[in-house]
Amino acid sequence: MAQFTKTEDELTPVVRERARSISLGDEKPSKPISVRDVAKLANVSVATVSMVLNDNPRISRATQMRVQRIIDQTGYRPNRLAQSLSSRYTQVLAVLLPALRHGFADAYFGELISGICDRAGKLGYKVILEQAKPEFIRSKGYIDIYERRYVDGMLCLGSNDRHHYLAEFSDHRYPMVVVDNYFSQWGLDFIVCDYASGAQQMMNYLLQLGHRKIGLIHAAQEIRTARDVTEVYQQKLQGVGVEPLKSWYQDGKFTEEGGAAAAAQLLEQEPRITAIFCTNDKMALGAIHYLNRQGVRIPQQISVVGFDDTRHAAFVNPSLTTVHLPLYEVGVLACERLIERVHGRTEKVAERLATHLVVRESTAMVPALQNEMELLAGR
Amino acid sequence: MAQFTKTEDELTPVVRERARSISLGDEKPSKPISVRDVAKLANVSVATVSMVLNDNPRISRATQMRVQRIIDQTGYRPNRLAQSLSSRYTQVLAVLLPALRHGFADAYFGELISGICDRAGKLGYKVILEQAKPEFIRSKGYIDIYERRYVDGMLCLGSNDRHHYLAEFSDHRYPMVVVDNYFSQWGLDFIVCDYASGAQQMMNYLLQLGHRKIGLIHAAQEIRTARDVTEVYQQKLQGVGVEPLKSWYQDGKFTEEGGAAAAAQLLEQEPRITAIFCTNDKMALGAIHYLNRQGVRIPQQISVVGFDDTRHAAFVNPSLTTVHLPLYEVGVLACERLIERVHGRTEKVAERLATHLVVRESTAMVPALQNEMELLAGR
DNA sequence: TCAATATGGTAAACTGTTTTAACGGTCGAG
DNA sequence: CTCGACCGTTAAAACAGTTTACCATATTGA
């Protein structure tokens, strides 16, 4: 305790000794250096060291340099637990994911998480992963992580209307941002892709190609954005005087398998369909897979389109016409806004990022129209 | 401070009052309940409460129930920062990922992470994500997370031989497990898939189908497991008297684009090739994509195989023959062993999980042999 | 019956920071 | 030549738990 003297003339040797014992890394894991050690070596109080660490302007240039030198020499690193305990900020964010079987192996969530992690890291935050398992919800784990001070805020991915527990965040007591979805009801913060606009672009394009009998492979109508797409599909068809039949809607469950099965249903129940609009790329992949092996030629006989523009979309055969979602950017922005909330932002967060159509090879003019055009061209 | 009396008869009313003020959730965020509050209400010392929390056997059934009742009534949740600070265990693990552009949107890493998170959650651990950016390495961020007490241990994914900093973990001072790779040099803990065995099964299968001119689309020879596969490929060919030419090896950079480009090179430089062995599924997808649009029929003209068995492998056209890697299980096991290390395990961790061949539709007998067989069959 | 050993609990020290109120010294103004 | 303001620094009080050493009783064994 009193092993370090405080007289000015003895400072240097003492420093050297401490520094050496550190750099040599003596086998005994000689308990790590603390603020107290640094304070002693620098002949200042621990308060001063703390202030240097948080570069508080109250510290004079001279003192700040003296302390910094000691910090560098000793390789002192403040204990984050102690810092968080006393400062009330953990510098950690949670990413809440739906509890899918092998949930992370998913391009959609992966892209969002990439954006989040990149930005969080840049702003000095760590990110913890949390899966919304039933038990987690039942035991209010989502509140626990705040109350037990694991995190300062949370980003909620893959949420849907049945997640009533999100209502508990409406008072903004616990900073939370809904990522790529939105709720009209609870006044929650959100960052979302403009699904409606994307769907409009896609429908306009398909209609322009002459398609009228368009099947829809959708999923999860409890997700607001998914409903947006479905609604646009319906409105646009009605806009050209077509009332989509019940059988044109098929649930693809957001998976490749589901997409394949839905395509099969569609073909069986409505053989005269000329295009299939899948509300995500995974289902489109499944549908294409099914059609290919049924010998249906894409896009000559049937056009197939997706939604998301995941990496794989470009590497199917034929490559997929789809709507590009700026998921990475959504992640980045959500992360940024969440941190602002943690730091006291009070204005509501609500942003809608633009989406755009990506035309590749899975779409073509409707076959009949194609023939007509060729006739007109005099062939 | 002395607002709570300790006489037995006054306990009940006091409890009720505290409990009500909590359940009503008064608007003022009346500072959260602490051990001290609980102790006072239960008429025991804070030490006792702490022991109940960590179910220390020294506490009698009666006391433990009395305290537990108060805990339940007040909804008290221990502050994890304080717990970690004084217990020296954070109950947090780090997952270190290579800094790929959009790294998480990858089926390979996703599968590993799924396994890790599932098991970590089950064992009461949280998982933080860390990207191995150059700056992170240069500043020894990987040591920082231990010293600053962010985590108890680390799982290292996507490592390779150029990651010399891993040598710093050879003394096992900081618990770390290499996931799905291994190093002969530094005595690090690891859990890995049996790549060599998988490659052998695949090569045996291809050779059995009569293939001799087999191209290899590989990548990242600085990864030990990747080299294992390449070596098996070479040995097996030599085993049947074939010396693979330099031009049979093509670098596919582990991506779809790379796979497509490599396939193009291969076809140009060695048109008589009858099979292509890709060392991961992504490159196989790229190769198939390229071959398809060149009009090459798979598997009639050329067989293509992959490695990994990611979800997409089953949904390409034709579906991909590949080697299944138990990545989820590797994640689970790595997580488990790491936690054992944290709790003092001293035996080295080194396990190799079995892999197996998955035959789908992208492979067939070598064309010439096929004809011969048909002739023999008298057709 | 008395020392020896469990049993159950407690007070105090400890974990490593940040923050706050106070303090001594210098300076300019009245 | 005081008085208040300001500046840089400090001691001490949080923060919210765990751990340790010790202290009463109660139970055993001889």
Greatest interface: A-B, 58 and 58 residues
State the helicity of chain A in percent bands.
40-55%
Uncertain ranges of chain A: 1-28
Largest sheet of chain A: 6 strands, parallel
Primary descriptors:
434 Repressor (Amino-terminal Domain); Rossmann fold; 3 domains; 6-stranded parallel sheet; 4-stranded parallel sheet; 14 helices; 12 strands; elongated; DNA-binding
Task: Describe it.
The structure is a homodimer of 379-residue chains. Chain A has 379 residues and is an alpha/beta fold. Helices cover 43% and strands 14% of the residues of chain A. Chain A has 3 domains: 8-78, Orthogonal Bundle (434 Repressor (Amino-terminal Domain)), CATH 1.10.260.40; 92-193 and 328-353, Response regulator (Rossmann fold), CATH 3.40.50.2300; 195-321 and 359-374, Response regulator (Rossmann fold). Chain A has helices spanning 11-23, 35-42, 46-53, 61-74, 80-87, 107-122, 134-138, 141-147, 195-208, 224-239, 256-269, 281-293, 327-342, 367-376; strands at 92-98, 126-132, 153-156, 176-179, 189-193, 214-218, 249-251, 275-278, 303-305, 322-324, 350-353, 356-358. Chain A has a 6-stranded parallel sheet, sandwiched between helices. Chain A has a 4-stranded parallel sheet with strand order 7-6-8-9, with helices on both faces. In chain A, α2 packs across α4 (61-74), α6 (107-122) packs across α13 and α11 (256-269) packs across α12. Mean pLDDT of chain A is 88; it is low at 1-28. At the A-B interface, α5, α6, β2 and α12 of A face α5, α6, β2 and α12 of B. Chain A binds a DNA duplex (30 and 30 nucleotides) through α3 and α5.
